[in-house]
Amino acid sequence: MNRSLFFKSLCLGLALSLVLASPCITIYTYNPFCFSFNLSYLGIVLTILSLLCCFAVCALRLAASNWPHIRKVEFLIVLVCVLIWLQGGIFATIIPTMPIEVDFGGDLLFLSFMQILAFAFVIGVMVFFRKFIQKHIMRALLFVILCHLITIGVTIYKFYPRYPYNKVFNNCFEENNKFTFGSGENVLLIVVDCLGSKLFKEELEKYPELKELFKDFTCLEGMRSPLPRTMAAIPAMLTGMSFKYGVEELGCELYPQYLLQAFLEKQTLMHRLKAEGFRCEGYQFMPNIALATETCFDNVMPRLKHRASEKTMLQVWCQRMMPYFMHSMFSFKWDVRKMFVNEVNTGRIRNRNLKYDQAMNLRLIKEFLIGRDEKVFKYYHLQGAHIALSTDENLEDCDDTDKYRQLRGSLIFLENLFFLLKENNLYDNATIVVTGDHTEDYQPEVATLVKAPGTVKDNMVFDDTSYVLADMPDIIQKLHGK
Length: 482
Description:
The protein is α/β, with parallel strands linked by helices. The protein has helices at 3-30, 39-63, 70-89, 107-128, 130-135, 137-159, 165-169, 197-206, 209-213, 230-239, 254-264, 269-275, 307-321, 324-330, 336-339, 356-367, 403-410, 412-423, 472-479; strands at residues 171-173, 180-181, 185-192, 218-220, 223-224, 279-282, 300-302, 369-370, 375-382, 431-435, 448-451, 461-463, 467-468. The protein is built from 19 helices and 13 strands. The radius of gyration is 26 Å and the shape is elongated.
């Protein structure tokens, strides 16, 4: 076999695979907390995929070595590499690096027009100099390969967090007993995403039947979320320790260090309840917002797979690599809520074709059970009014819904939960807290509804005492009389 021909074929495949894989490294190193796998795992997966790409391109190039138009195909591969590089390295930087749904608004047509002009210019220049490029194609390929290797190395060096990753995210929460409750006393902490204080009061006016649902509760309208983001709010209410930094620091190594410190403290809500004989279980909404450690939770298991995180990476990569005019032409809308559903290793009903709250409600109805444990604590998390808005007040799929309708549909879970607890004589002796983590526009004023065991009221009452979410362990202990 001609060595130079083999080396050229190999470089063609390597250049194409690197321009495709490089954005995955960028997405991951900026957002490691959004994924359950570590960089080594991603590196192995990308290496395997790159080798397959190299092998395929190399094999096709060698098989067609005697084809008269093969040099044109080589030029076309170089052209495609440059266009992908242009999209992934320049145009994609306009899209937020966070793996979130992107709303271009009125800028999409302008961006599409500018991108088409840029692509047309690059194609025109390369076609004009095609003979020169074909003559020096190996130099062009080595330049592309070298630039991307340097970019990947610099990105990892500058942005990859240096902390004991496996200690933080090596475990996950198993879900076989997600709706198995204690036979005696239950302490339930239910987070409804985006349940802001103002939104909750408006919801009560819009849907008056909710006043009956929460008539035994006290609304702590002075509750605040000091850093109104889910990643900061949930650990604070579970551990009693607030994240002392800002939003920007949630994306760096300070955050997992905070998780390790907060959840390994001996004064977390779970440690306190375990000392009283409770079985403690957590069921998070997003990956990596509650540390799955055996010292806190009893439903912890080694992580077996990373399908949700792999799907997240693939969809965010597709979103970033898709040219703007394709977004405009085909009206693509990525389902971010499915992307961020927590890893589910077990459970009889999966989230596959259901929205998160729909799956939660269906599983509750089908799987409600009284278990052998007398005392049980559970942390649940509902989507609530959080985007993407896609369900109505009946918890059914709806394209033209709004935050009020989706929140009302989400609260059907609570209606069914309270009904089942009452039907099984568990409601009266239960300590129940329903709280927001932030408002729908990420402000700190959240609604927190609390019910102590044995509480019976005619109407919900309001308490304007000032609290922060880190006070939750003390509030819950006080509620159930400890």
